[in-house]
Amino acid sequence: MSSRAYLSIENLGVTFNAGQRASEVLKGVDLTVDQGEFISIIGHSGCGKSTLLNVVAGLVPVSHGAVILDKRAVDGPGPDRAVVFQNHSLLPWLTVYENVRLAVDKVFRGRKSRPERHAWTLHNLALVQMTHAKDKKPHEISGGMKQRVGLARALAMEPKVLLLDEPFGALDALTRANLQDSVMEIHAKLRNTVLMITHDVDEAVLLSDRIVMMTNGPAAEIGDIVRVELPRPRRRIEVDATPAYIAARHAVIEFLYARHTGLHAAA
Amino acid sequence: MSLPAYSESAAAPVPKPAEVLPLRRKPPRFARRAAAILSGVAAQVLPPLVTLGVILLLWQGLSGDAAGGLPAPATIWLESRELIMDPFFDRGGVDKGLFWHALTSLQRVAIGFSFSAVVGVALGVLVGSSRFAHRSLDPIFQVLRTVPPLAWLPISLAALHEANPSALFVIFITAIWPIVINTAVGVRNIPQDYVNVGRVLRLSPPEYFVTILLPAATPYIFTGLRIGVGMSWLAIVASEMLLGGVGVGFFIWDQYNASRISDIVVALVWVGLVGFALDRLVALAGRIVSRGASAS
Predict the structure, then answer these.
(1) What ipTM was reported for this prediction?
(2) How far apart are CA B144 and CA A41, in angstroms?
(3) Beta-carbon separation of B295 and A85 below 8 A
């Protein structure tokens, strides 16, 4: 495969062994991602897109093939592949600040002084506009705010790849749009390499450089990849009627509902 | 760089009290507050008091006051008045007020229960986090926990030879099982998300223990401690009956041998109230320690 790719997933297969029965979740997945690229992975429920993300995160072991990030094979979780989980997974006994600070302390201990770590924590909270709630506990803030803090925690680790696992799936449409805009701003500013799982076609088109579409499981694979030919910065009000947007959106919908209907997938 | 407007903060409810038109002179603020608190207390305290009164009346009416039988409340009041009114007298030996008996018993519970809390939480963490430890230890625990406290007493007397350590051991062994089992359940039930956070951050085992495992399991640990403290109080009374000396358990046994049933009734009330207080104390400690940990 291309040796210049920043992140490359090569002939990846994942098989879960549940007792005697082995179930093949992913088969022959090949994907290369350039540095700074924003990739969405879309597919019907149960197609193994979360498994793919968890393999890159190192939370699920590779059965077959390899995941190579910045010339090194992934073999376990680490802060260079920070994850924003679908249900925020902030530790409820820590404040917003402490949740982010925990990650900062762990990743930068020895590299940054204590005041620097404090400043870095506040900087990342400011990046997601959560400075005002830094002393609140997670149960005192709304779902959208929790996801912002989860994002701040992930960004604070300065990951090589930012992994977003349906980060806005549980939010209402307006909050979701707000967060999408924030993610675009942050991506424009920091040029992170991002891998995002989503089931929202518009979200995928608006945010991504490329959209990876998965076939239905079991033994799911990459069905097709759509490149979104929209210049950045993108503003939702300006792009959603452009031919490029409509073309990308149509390609994804055609893939999901005409070629690979989710009939046998859990809805 | 202008970040997008953040609508959620605008949507938060503004805590502004509605304006009240001064139609009438309001009673002073503290008076209204006091009235509210009083009515709240009354709602809590009155129903059990009324029930208690009904029970006492029924008891009084039904008991024939035959010699050697169960004395009626009025008889108890007449016979055990000193015991009820003065819990603090001390005439040396075992002739003391119930406060001193209860205090001795509580000291034993404090020691025995502390041991079982420390050992129980440690064992629970082990059983909860290691599959091997779970497989090898859990069946043994499940059998041992059904052994009644008093059945341990002869064994501990045989092993330890002395009465006081034996009583402590009985408390320890009685209280430890719910602590072990609940802690293990708490550790096993740590949400996978929190575990994943620990893995992504590459927390070392000690760091994971302090920042994730212990806080996440705290509500379960305190459930175990609460059941454990109740059971240890049950055990102390039972073991003291056999061991003698100062303590509520022995006091009950002693009064039984002296056929002073009235005193036993008074002692039972003390046992119940102290057990209730212990339970509330541990529950309160649990609420303080695990504040926010159960909410998500």
Answers:
(1) 0.87
(2) 53
(3) no
pLDDT tens by residue, A5-51: 899 999 999 998 877 788 888 988 999 999 999 999 998 887 888 89
Q: Chain A interface, mutation test: which of B1, B7, B190, B200, most A Cβ atoms within 10 Å?
A: B200
SS3 percent helix, strand, coil of chain B, rounded to 5, is: 75, 0, 25
Distance CA A92, CA B220 (A): 15
A78 contacts A58 by C-beta, under 8 angstroms: yes
Q: Smallest CA–CA separation between B216 and chain A, in Å?
A: 8
Q: pTM for the whole thing?
A: 0.78
Instruction: Quote the pLDDT of residue B15.
Output: 59
Tell me if the domain spanning B95-295 has CATH number 3.20.20.450: no
Check: CB of residue A38 under 8 Å from CB of residue A248. Answer: no
Interstrand relation of A193-198 and A161-165 (parallel, antiparallel or unpaired): parallel
Residues B5-61 pLDDT 10s: 444 444 455 556 666 565 666 667 788 888 888 888 888 889 999 999 999 988 888
Buried-state track B243-278, b at ≥16 Cβ within 10 A, e below 16: bebbbbbbbbbbbeeeebbbbbbbbeebbeebbeeb
Please provide the average confidence, as pLDDT, over all residues in chain A.
Answer: 89
Instruction: Tell me the two tokens of residue A240.
Output: 């959603």
Q: Which residue does chain A place closest to B291, by CA atoms?
A: A93
Rounded mean pLDDT, B224-234 = 93
**Run of H or E residues at B17:** none
A91:B4 CB<8 A: no
Tokens 């302090």 belong to B210
Do A97 and B240 form a contact (C-beta atoms < 8 A)?
no
d(CA B294, CA B186): 11
